[in-house]
Each structure stands twice: as C-alpha cells, then as structure tokens.
Amino acid sequence: MNFEYTNGDLLLRSTNTSSKFDKTLNSLWTLAYESNYFHYKIDTSLSSVKKICSGNVNILILPNNNRFSHRRKPQLFKTINDPLSSESFNFNKVPKHEFLLNVSEKYTTKSCSILINVSPFSYLHSLLVPEVEKCHNQV
C-alpha cells in the first residue's frame, strides 16, 4: 500500500488523537499479526511491563523471551559499513506480505518502506527501510 503525506500531515506536538498514518499503520500491522506472519506472539496488553523507579529516572522493562529464542540469527559484520552481499540477508529478500506501507512525501520520488519486524519487541514494532530497491546496507 502506498501512503503519501504532506508537511500538513506531520504532527509537531503530541495529541490524544491518532493521525491518518497512525491508524493506517495500526490497521495493517494488526492484520499482519492476526495473519501469523510473525515468528511468535507477543503480549499486546503490556501487562508484563515492569516499572523500576530510581530517583529522577523511570525505567520500563518489557520481558520478551521469545525474541531471543525465535528470531533469525543475526549476521556477523567485519565493519559497520560492510557492502551488501546478494547471498546474505537483504531487504529485497523479504516476502511481500511483510511489507506494510510504501511511504513518500507528495510530489517527490524518494520513498521508504515500512516492514513488520517478524521478531518484534512490542506492539507495532516495525522497520523503516529507505529505498529498498537500492540495496543499502544496514548502517
């Protein structure tokens, strides 16, 4: 699905209302989740969140044991800017059902894709991937 936006669509301050983008992402992510495209189920209620308070700092802990036991094994890199290898993982190999949105500013040609993270930390955890077709590495 394509999603075009203009500067008028950008929220400069947080409000209690969801934007058109928020609603679209939420709907598509939930559909993918209910279609079992993820490697595991997550606690979408956030009931497992633990709050740790120490002084002026509030820390939230979100346990997610499944992420480490069910996710794809991470690739090893020699440097942070290793060139992309066609044999190893790259975003052009991601199945189409993992693509949620193609986002672009109206009247421009550049776009980025929003993909589900099949091993999510939490509800709506997604990946923002610029110009998938250009095979950028993951710097």
UniProtKB/TrEMBL annotation:
| A Pfam family that the UniProt record links to this protein | GDPGP1_N
Q: Which GO terms describe its molecular function?
A: GDP-D-glucose phosphorylase activity; guanyl-nucleotide exchange factor activity; hydrolase activity; nucleotide binding
Query: Which Gene Ontology cellular-component terms appear in the entry?
Result: cytoplasm
According to the entry, every stretch annotated as the GDPGP1-like N-terminal domain falls at 20-139
Q: Name one GO biological process term.
A: glucose metabolic process
Question: What InterPro entries does the entry give?
Answer: GDPGP, GDPGP1_N
> Which named protein is this?
GDP-D-glucose phosphorylase 1, variant 2
Q: Which organism is it from?
A: Schistosoma haematobium (Blood fluke)
Organism lineage = Eukaryota, Metazoa, Spiralia, Lophotrochozoa, Platyhelminthes
